[in-house]
Write a structure and sequence with these properties.
The chain has a domain of 123 residues. It is built from six helices and no strands. With 194 residues, it is mainly α. α2 packs antiparallel against α6.
């Protein structure tokens, strides 16, 4: 074309009818017929991936719940022993301090009863067991359950914290720490659930 020098885009655009807007010749129906199979493949693959991830996540959550249930069972087994151990320790301390002076057995029994009442964790263990059952029931739901699981985890944390604060036994305290660790892992996993 023997045009001297560079041609600016503005010069080309200023020429009439060089660039013409043309309406889309495809109808939405035609476009949808072409896109629908590809979109279906993508959505099917996404659903398959989400289902697999959900199954894996569910297995992990259930394994962690087993660990928590085992810990709660071990705590429940220790509860009766805690009061007995406290009574024995209290009697030994009194013998050491009193140096042969007779101690009123009724007063000793009152002290043990007061301690037993303050350290009673049976209600917390019952509520914790109930929350675990409710949590496990959510696995059967077909609707989103993430918020419900989150709420139940908060309640379980509250109960196990109370058990820990009332505990006078090192083995119970150890189980409380283990359960709290598992609850934290559950909380992290639940962040991935709708």
């Amino acid at each position: 074309m023997n045009i001297p020098g560079p041609i600016a885009l503005a010069d080309l655009l200023s020429l009439k009818d060089l660039v013409v807007y043309q309406e889309n010749t495809y109808s939405e129906e035609v476009l949808w017929r072409k896109l629908a199979p590809a979109l279906k493949k993508v959505f099917d693959a996404l659903q398959k991936m989400r289902s697999e991830e959900g199954r894996n996540l569910g297995r992990d959550l259930q394994e962690r719940l087993k660990v928590i249930r085992k810990g709660v069972g071990l705590i429940s087994e220790k509860v009766p022993q805690v009061v007995e151990a406290y009574q024995v320790r209290l009697q030994e301390r009194i013998k050491k301090i009193s140096k042969g002076v007779e101690v009123d057995p009724i007063r000793l029994a009152q002290e043990v009863a007061i301690m037993a009442d303050r350290s009673d964790i049976s209600e917390e263990l019952i509520r914790l067991g109930s929350h675990l059952k409710q949590f496990e029931a959510l696995f059967k739901e077909s609707q989103p359950v993430g918020k419900k699981m989150e709420f139940l985890l908060q309640e379980m944390n509250r109960e196990i914290n109370t058990v820990g604060s009332k505990s006078l036994n090192s083995e119970i305290s150890h189980q409380v720490v283990s359960i709290k660790s598992e609850l934290e892992k559950l909380r992290e996993q639940i962040q991935n659930i709708e």
